[in-house]
Design brief:
By secondary structure, chain A is α/β, with parallel strands linked by helices. In chain A, 28% of the residues lie in helices and 21% in strands. Chain A contains three helices and eight strands. The termini of chain A are far apart. Chain B has helices spanning 21-37, 85-98, 114-127, and strands at 42-47, 65-70, 76-78, 81-82, 103-108, 132-136. Classes of the chains: A alpha/beta, B alpha/beta.
Amino acid sequence: MAFQRTTKKETYIPTSSMGDIAFLLLVFFMVTVVFTEETGLVVKLPRAEAGEEGIRELISNIYINDAGKISIDDMIVRPEDVAAVMSQKVASNPFLIVAFKTDKYTPYGIVSDVMEGLKEANAVKVFFNTDMELPGVAF
Amino acid sequence: MGILAKRKRKRGMGEIPMSSTSDVAFLLLIFFIVMPMKQDEVGISLLLPAKKTEQTTVRVRQSNVATIRVHRDHHLTLDGVTIALSAIRDAIRERWEANEQTVVILETHPDADYGWMIACLDEVKLSGARKFTLKTTKI
């Protein structure tokens, strides 16, 4: 008695909706992406191991380069003007976090003066931006 | 002379090729996923003390204070005793485990590099100490 051959159905993954999924994801990422608009100052950040991620949406950057120049929103400001500038920002966003993008060779006195200005403006949540530490490399 | 019959040309409907649309969508998708990743904010967060008033001033016993000093020449001391940067973590951890009321004060000279302050702050954070504050050496 001859065995009957069973016909095998070919299996395939339907890919017709791939384009729709890609577009949906594309729209999502286009809407949620945040591009930084400020150029700031050129700084060499110090390295640290204990670095944690900051919430970018709440962050306002203060750049301080090794020559002691301070930049907020691409405007060069003097240390004594930091309080006035930042109090306006705190008024519009009470949850503001101030990120220090400071060069590792900047004299600490300038950073300290800026922090005094932040205390006056009641911007007490600060974030010291760092680079991730590599093993065997000093700060 | 024969009469040339006018041939009606069949006009095909104009079509925009759509086959590569999903490829373009995927390329854009990759772009919008990768771009924000490049701008991660990594750093050390800190809550600055509010402006000095009688209500905000907290008195701490001298025995509960561990003072790390960053001197002008980047020489480090812990309670007046010279210490290496790599030894700070364990020293503070020991103090913290022995007394959970320990407050670490990181005092930096205004002429010292900001990078050294961050390096010390990093070690203090990694030691597990919960209470720490920044101070600037008065000249």
